[in-house]
């Protein structure tokens, strides 16, 4: 039976809550949640199917726990692993850096051999710039969430995204 490793870090609780909501929507597959603030990133290597959640802070910066693990993450081999990303940001207050941390994480995963799955369309968002866009600029590299400006959209977006992830994972 396939297991999904869901790794996240959360400063205010938003990313943790979203990780739990995503895990709660996944049915028929074991999902193991890992808060990297306490668990680190070393156990990523134990999963072929991964969901990674990250929030963007300040002016396009990594969330502090991801930042603390960034060097260790650079040693993780993602070859043969399918990775779905979700990012949390503020498109109004920080529209020039919306979800930049998710973009940085995507770059790291791909550079280390991982396969990104389940991109998310940019329709319905208002932002100036983002490192989390695909090469064509028509999709985010993963699920885009904004608990500041669009908290009412989160549930529906999760409900639409999770089946795409599971399909891409082949489970």
Task: Based on the model shown, name its key terms.
alpha/beta; Rossmann fold; two-stranded antiparallel ribbon; 7-stranded mixed beta sheet; 9 strands
Beta content comes to 15-25%
- CATH homologous superfamily designation: Flavodoxin domain
Q: How many β strands by DSSP?
A: 9
Give the total of domains.
1
Q: Overall mean pLDDT score?
A: 95
CATH class: Alpha Beta
**In this structure, how is the largest beta sheet organized?**
7 strands, mixed
Q: Name the overall outline.
A: globular
Structural class: alpha/beta
- CATH fold name, please? Rossmann fold
Distance between the termini: 9 Å
Q: Which CATH architecture?
A: 3-Layer(aba) Sandwich
Topology of this structure?
Blueprint: E1 3-8, H1 14-25, E2 30-35, H2 36-39, E3 49-57, E4 61-62, H3 64-73, E5 82-88, H4 100-111, E6 115-117, E7 120-121, E8 139-140, E9 143-145, H5 154-169
Parallel strand pairs: 1-2, 1-3, 3-5, 5-6, 5-9
Antiparallel strand pairs: 3-4, 7-8
Task: Write structural notes for this entry.
The relative contact order is 0.18. The chain has one domain (3-169): Rossmann fold. The protein has 171 residues and is α/β, with parallel strands linked by helices. The N and C termini lie close together (9 Å). The mean pLDDT is 95. The strands form two sheets. Strands 1, 2, 3, 4, 5, 6 and 9 form a seven-stranded mixed beta sheet that branches. The chain has a two-stranded antiparallel ribbon with strand order 7-8. Helix 1 packs across helix 5 (154-169). The chain contains five helices and nine strands. 32% of the residues lie in helices and 23% in strands. The chain has helices at residues 14-25, 36-39, 64-73, 100-111, 154-169; strands at 3-8, 30-35, 49-57, 61-62, 82-88, 115-117, 120-121, 139-140, 143-145.
